[in-house]
UniProtKB/TrEMBL annotation:
Keywords: Membrane, Transmembrane, Transmembrane helix. This is DUF2243 domain-containing protein. It comes from Novosphingobium rhizovicinum. Pfam families: DUF2243 (PF10002). The chain crosses the membrane at residues 16-35, 55-75, 87-105, 131-148, 160-177. The keyword Hydrolase does not apply. InterPro entries: DUF2243_membrane.
Length: 255
């Protein structure tokens, strides 16, 4: 495959992935944190109180980080294509399509098929809010992205478009990582090779207790708001949800 074609595909994929991740961050920031209209599993019976709801929100945030990180890596690998004509339009239009695709999938799967939450769970007309959101933030951005990709002229520089998109994704990710002021729980992932005994000791040293664990993911709960997140990082955690990602990124240096 020609080098130019590979670069174009990377540029296209990076736009889709970054837009999709940004859509998830937008959902988390606006609906979970600012408006507090729902949590990821608001309508799932047996999940428990707000502490467990926040835990699953944390897993959702972690997934969005992985998708956004994949987009950033793909963008870096295709960075040489940013100088060619039309790169800015391709990147931004695909990001809009990715952003809208997130909301389309969330509406179809989470709201209507699985029923794990609605846009406004306390509304007397939840379908109305679902449809408004589906049109405004799902179908609308997808159509706008398709239109821009075919006809639109936006930024002349692919480098500028990439920088603005990366800034939006990183800024959204940091904001989404903020925990509620009264949060007493989080999801933690520890270094590969750490035994369960060492992890349990680290959790106890932070003043926390284990809510549940599955496939190397630990749900931790503290008696005080804020918990001992910094203690977990000190004792081997790679990532703790509902904390700023940058703090977790430094933990890999101890491996």
């Amino acid at each position: 495959m020609p080098k130019t074609a590979r670069g174009s595909r990377r540029l296209s994929r990076s736009g889709y992935l970054l837009g999709f991740g940004l859509g998830g961050f937008f959902d988390a920031i606006l609906l979970h944190q600012i408006l507090q209209w729902h949590h990821l599993l608001s309508l799932v019976e047996g999940v428990g109180d707000i502490r467990n709801q926040v835990l699953f929100d944390g897993l959702f945030h972690a997934l969005m980080y992985l998708i956004a990180a994949a987009g950033l890596v793909t963008l870096v690998r295709g960075r040489h294509e940013l100088a060619r004509e039309g790169a800015a339009r391709l990147l931004v239009s695909n990001a809009l399509i990715g952003f809208g695709t997130w909301h389309v999938l969330d509406s179809i799967l989470s709201h209507w098929l699985l029923g794990i939450h609605r846009i406004r769970v306390d509304s007397s007309a939840p379908l109305m809010w679902d449809l408004i959101w589906f049109a405004a933030f799902g179908v609308g951005p997808v159509l706008l992205g398709l239109l821009l990709r075919r006809r639109g002229r936006i930024l002349h520089s692919g480098q500028v478009a990439a920088a603005l998109l990366v800034f939006a994704v990183l800024g959204g990710g940091v904001w989404a990582a903020q925990s509620p002021s009264d949060a007493r729980s989080a999801i933690a992932v520890f270094q590969p090779g750490m035994s369960d005994g060492h992890i349990l000791t680290a959790i106890r040293n932070s003043g926390g207790s284990v809510v549940w664990t599955s496939s190397g993911i630990w749900a931790v709960q503290w008696s005080d708001a804020g918990g001992g997140v910094s203690d977990l990082y000190r004792d081997g955690a790679l990532l703790v949800s509902n904390s700023y990602l940058a703090a977790g990124c430094l933990a890999w240096t101890r491996i």
